[in-house]
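Example 3.2
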Amino acid sequence: MSRAGPCGALYGLARPVLFALDPERVHELTLEGLQRAHDLGATRWLGQAPLADEPVRVMGLEFPNPVGLAAGLDKNGAHIDALGELGFGFVEVGTVTPRAQPGNPRPRMFRLPRAQALINRLGFNNRGLAEFVEHARQARYRGVLGLNIGKNADTPIGAALQDYLLGLQAVYPYAGYVTINISSPNTRDLRSLQQDEELRALLVALGTERARLAQEFGRRVPLAVKIAPDLDDAQLPRIADTLVELEIDAVIATNTTLARDAVAGLPHGTEAGGLSGRPLRPRATQVVRLLAQHLQGALPIIAVGGILSGADAVEKIDAGATLVQLYTGLIYRGPALVGECRSAIAAARRAAPAAASALAAGGPGG
């Protein structure tokens, strides 16, 4: 039996107890428990047995495997090494803002078990750049580390650029890549930065600062932009073209959604905030597919949204993504989901050349 077996079984036993408690408190307790296990050397047991991954080169970086942790689970970057031992090829932490802030009032996280979904309106709750950067500096994680930056809630949207510049300057020396989060629905007016002129102005300034930092530190750190699933289809090509033109290195699709059709009538279904999990999967995959069709390989896509199985991860790769990220799926499936997604993607990639060879040889469909 692989290590995924007992790991998944144990999580299955623990989940009813965890789901009886407040979601945000469980989130905190889980990270604390994971950290204690890491400190004792026990988190290696939670990771997967050696899998037949092939490294993936994206944004000029070598990813040990294509399955990553999405931002939001570890907002302060306090558990990078512990999370990394769960088998991720890359770990993204944050979103961090220049100054510490408490986020929105509690309760602000809600489970919708029948839909395998979450709604959150956390609002970039974090302890600020200084603590975040210190955690990133101390991390020994060997995969790729993504650092996700945003703006403070009380910073006027017209002054948001300064917050992003401060974030980029602070995290740059410690980042494998930096994500610019302009798509959370839980910070007032933040999504307006996805509009054409606002997006261009922000990215031009950040690109200029990135060039300066690259000279100072002797390396060019890739930039990724995380977008919302609620964008109009007509906006997606314009955003994609802007990202390519301004030499952004990847697009992350997508953040949480404000749509509620899929959870209508469910307990907590009308709570304000961003919806993630199973109901987000179709739209997130559609956004990936539309971006891929337009980009034609000009920019890599990191897919996130509704991945609760290995098949869901493969669906995102088939739609045009190069890497995938998990968050809500971990809450419903536990750490075994990481290995399941890695194995499924590896199997799909091995099968693709075999199918192409069969067609070339005049096999089925040839």
